[in-house]
Structures are given as C-alpha cells and as structure tokens.
C-alpha cells in the first residue's frame, strides 16, 4: 500500500508541474504586479475556455497531491 501511494504521489507531482507549465502567465512581470494586480484581486478578469479548464485541473490535482502526501506520511509510521 505504501509503495502504491508513493507512486501515486510521483504521478500527481508530475501532473501538477505539467499543468502549471501549460498555463499562460497572468501578469507582465513587476509592472503587471504593481499596476494590474488589483484586477486579479477583485475578479475583473474572468478565465474562459482552456484557461478555466487548466485552473480547475490544477486545483483538483493540487488537492489530490496534498491528500496523498498526508496518506504517505501516515502510512510511513
């Protein structure tokens, strides 16, 4: 069981990295962080299409990664 969870953890980690790298950048460097940061904070820009799908996949994979990491730590004892 422990080996299966460790392999699953590796698969989720690779998947999270791949999905994050597929996403477009959200700001234009430091100038975008200073001037355009409020737009993301207050939700003026909405993600649509592939960006929305990638955001949701990232959230699900991140949650699964954290759950499996906790399970690996629990079974390692």
TrEMBL record:
A Pfam match: SecG
Membrane topology per record: Multi-pass membrane protein
Positions in coiled-coil regions: none
Subcellular location(s) of the protein: Cell membrane
Known function: Involved in protein export. Participates in an early event of protein translocation.
Family: Belongs to the SecG family.
PANTHER family linked: PROTEIN-EXPORT MEMBRANE PROTEIN SECG
Protein's recorded name: Protein-export membrane protein SecG
Source organism: Paenibacillus farraposensis
Protein encoded by which gene: secG
């Amino acid at each position: 069981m422990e080996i299966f969870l460790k392999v699953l953890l590796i698969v989720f980690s690779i998947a999270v990295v791949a999905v994050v790298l597929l996403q477009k950048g959200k700001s234009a460097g430091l100038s975008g962080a200073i001037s355009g940061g409020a737009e993301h904070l207050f939700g003026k820009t909405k993600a649509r299409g592939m960006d929305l799908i990638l955001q949701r996949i990232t959230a699900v994979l991140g949650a699964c990664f954290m759950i499996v990491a906790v399970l690996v730590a629990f079974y390692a004892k």
